[in-house]
Amino acid sequence: MPQRNLQKVQKHISKKRGAIGAMHENSRDAQRLRRAGARDERLIKHAANVDKGRRPYLDRIHYFHDAVQTVESPLSDAELADMVTKCINRDEEELAQLQQERRKGRPPIRREEALTQRTQTEEKEFKTGFWMPDMSDEDVLVALKAWNGQWSGLSPLKFIRLTQAGVKQSSSFPPKSIS
């Protein structure tokens, strides 16, 4: 999608004038090209920010997608809580390896800090309500197994917030702070 505005403007100007490089730097057409380029850059930055914000949720759903491939029946609340705990601690082995490789007295590397921070954030979220697909529903389980891996493919799924105490409440897609 990005770059389309710039390409349209370039195509229109080249049809009208011929070579794009032969125009004056402050002409109307040159200004149109600069505006189209700036608009495309803004769109690219915005798309990158949106993708960055969605990445933790997509990683989480990918984990659940892989975990339910062998599951045949809907999960109970205890099984959901167990799966959430496994999801939170999914990078525990890598974290232990990174800590073991680090020399004594050295600060942690960025990957180690990122994994620790993600784990702590998800543990806090689990106390208040962990956002996840409702895998206790048969239809959601089937849809999650058939998920294509794209953000747009998550809209038909039903989501819940599950707390450590075992309380389930329905949630919305896309996730908001506490929905």
From TrEMBL:
Gene3D superfamilies: Translation machinery-associated protein 16-like. It comes from the Eukaryota. GO terms for cellular component: nucleus. InterPro entries: Tma16, Tma16_sf. Residues 9-18 have a biased composition (Basic residues). Residues 1-29, 98-122 are annotated as: Disordered. Residues 109-122 have a biased composition (Basic and acidic residues). Belongs to the TMA16 family. This is Translation machinery-associated protein 16. It comes from Penicillium cinerascens.
